[in-house]
Amino acid sequence: MPEYTVLLTWDAEACVWVAENDDIPLALESGSFDALIARCRHAAPEILVENGKPPEAYLNFIAPQALSTLLAV
Questions:
Q1: Whole-angstrom Cα distance, residue 2 to residue 49?
Q2: How far apart are CA 15 and CA 31, in angstroms?
């Protein structure tokens, strides 16, 4: 099963979390971190199929900003 790393970043100006991966390709946003992950899990298979790729995939989420926030507490 292919693995795709999805980068999750916080856009302070828009007050949303953004998910991006150029290989799927995926670009989504949400005001909630958990909602964004759920949206990615739902949308990624559909986007993969639209781009001629198998829908089965492992999504590896990385969120450097969230981690640095947790470590700062």
A1: 13
A2: 7
The alpha carbon of residue 6 and the mean position of all alpha carbons in its chain are separated, in whole angstroms, by: 4
Report domain extents, the chain.
Answer: 3-72
Longest dimension (CA), the chain: 43
**Among residues of the chain, what percentage have pLDDT more than 90?**
85
Q: Structure pTM?
A: 0.86
| DSSP per position, 1-45 | --EEEEEEEEETTTTEEEEEETTTTEEEEESSHHHHHHHHHHHHH
**CB of 8 within 8 A of CB of 63?**
yes
Domain 3-72 has CATH 2.60.120.10: no
- Which of 70, 71, 73, 66 minimizes the C-alpha distance to 9? 66
